[in-house]
Amino acid sequence: MNPSVLQRIANGDSNAVRECIDQYGALVWSLARRLSRTAADAQDATQDIFLQIWRSAARFDESKGSEKVFIAMIARRRLIDRLRKSAAEPPMDSSDEVLESVAWSDPGSGSTADTSIEVAQAMQALAELRPDQRQVLELGLLQGLTQSEIARRLGMPLGTVKSCMRRGLIRVRECMRVGAKQISGRSDV
Amino acid sequence: MSETGPENQPDEAMIDLLVKQVTEGLSPEEQRALDILDSAVASEYSRDLERAAAAITLAASTSPLESLPAALKARLEEQAQDFVAHRRPVELVSDREIARPKPPTDTRTGAAGWYAAAACLLLALFAWLRSPPPAKPVAQAPQATQAPAAPVVSTPPAPPTPAEERAALLAQAGSIKVQLTPTKDPAAAGVTGDVVWDPVTQRGFLHFVGLKPNDPRLQQYQTWIFDGGRDKRYPVDGGIFDVPADSSEVIVPIHAAVPVRLAKAFAVTVENPGGVVVSAQHHVVALGAAS
User: Fold this and answer.
1) Among A101, A149, B22, B121, which one has the highest count of C-beta atoms within 10 angstroms of its own C-beta?
2) Arithmetic mean of pLDDT, B123-138
3) How many helices (H) and strands (E) does chain A have?
4) Among B20, B63, B72, whose Cβ lies nearest the Cβ of A43?
């Protein structure tokens, strides 16, 4: 199997650093746009995220997950840090806008379709969640709202929001762990 | 994927903190609470949750990906070129085997005194921070500052060592040298250090003698540049680095994440592996103000 772009970066392949931008630029930029207050913030964040991706390339282990998910993890971590530290309002202020955005794709029809097993497992787990759990996860993970903000926007008690977030995330995590063990088991045979 | 079984499940309070950490981040108080509770189980659980959150983000997004704006792509490519040109010395430092530090059994001991000392140093060194922030954010500077691309030759000479590069930079007209003052942080006991920085090429080096070795799986050092042209709350990330167990002296290149207009001060903190975007400054080990 050919080494992934992150493995090539870790191995010192200079071309791979630029290829990483071509391959994942749209993904990182789209996440940054979604979880930044302004376009300028998103641009700064994108530069920051790529620097971190290149520096972290050696930490990528394909046996633990897909490269795309690894990239999204780094991007999300950086964007959450920026949102948290900016002490700013969430990216969207209008309740209507937020609620209109809660339009989950039918699992499997997402426009950022990813063929990785992890994402397929996440889709399957999402399909099995209750609507309120999915909605809370979406507002938190895709729109970058805090639990308190979600509670206000949806008129839910904070405890309910926390519970939905926790159960939803744990359910997806469990599905991914089970899937990983099955794959590991098959490959061990 | 990790193999933590149910018997190793973190308790509910810790799970709540971990969920909040990966979905919206923690306040300093919550982070301290998690640090106290933290364990290998929590770290593994947190990684799994982060992975799940990332997979959900990819799985649930309904909108098409946006293409990178051309200007941003051009900046990223310049950044990539700079990263490639300067990363070797970092790898030479970082790739060595690192000893595991002693468990942080006494992290709470003397914390108040440490914070007070750090706060005093920060106040003394960064008086300028009290001035109002610039009216407008600094635009991305045009790249007269970019390091020249290395010429293509068939048999390239051996790359200079970090020490040689630092010496060359120090000899360069316009470069500045800033003495770093250690804090009372245990990692900084007996430390001496300085920064050499060239504002034109945006290159610099940290030089430390006696900085405590770190375990990069647990913590890493991170460099910060306080830029007089930027919002004072957000010093520029100068990169992460490690101190190998067998090294009493390290020279580490500084990689500014974005162009620095006027380097006013430098700081080194201890952060979680991979570094952070904005330091909570809970664990500052050295500071230095440019005169």
Assistant:
1) B22
2) 43
3) 9, 0
4) B72
Tokens of B226: 């306080």
* DSSP-H helix ranges across chain B: 12-23, 28-37, 40-60, 70-94, 111-125, 162-171
Confidence of residue B58 (pLDDT cuts 50, 70, 90): confident
How far is the first Cα of chain A from the last one, in angstroms, to the nearest whole number?
20
Check: CB of residue A53 under 8 Å from CB of residue A76: no
pLDDT(A74) > 90: yes
Residues of B in contact with A55 (CB under 8 A): 90, 239-240, 274
> 3-class DSSP state for residue A90?
coil
Interface predicted TM-score of the whole assembly (ipTM), two decimals: 0.81
The whole-angstrom distance between B28's CA and the closest CA on chain A is 10
Name the minimum distance, in Å, from the CA of A158 to any CA of chain B. Answer: 13
**Which B positions 257-276 lie with beta carbon below 8 A of chain A?**
257-258, 274-276
Buried b (16+ CB within 10 A) or exposed e, B120-132: ebbeebbeebeee
Which contacts qualify for A6-9: CB closer than 8 Å, 24 or more apart?
A6/A53, A6/A57, A6/A60, A6/A67, A6/A70, A7/A57, A7/A60, A7/A62, A9/A54, A9/A57
The secondary structure element, H or E, covering residue A26 is helix A14-34
Q: Name which of B62, B66, B234 is nearest A33 (Cβ-Cβ).
A: B66
Q: How many CB pairs under 8 A join A and B?
A: 214
HSE-CB for A174 with a 13 A CA cutoff: 13
**Lowest-confidence pick of A49-63, A81-95, B100-114:** B100-114
Residues 139-168 of B with CB under 8 A from A: 140
What is this structure's pTM?
0.54
Q: CA B4 → CA A84, B8, B188, B218, distances in Å?
A: 29, 6, 35, 19
- The structure tokens listed for A32 are 């940054």
Confidence of residue B145 (pLDDT cuts 50, 70, 90): very low
CA distance A94 to chain B (A): 19
> Residue A137 and residue B241: Cα distance in Å, rounded?
35
Asked if residue B181 lies in contact with residue B286, where contact means CB atoms within 8 angstroms, the answer is yes
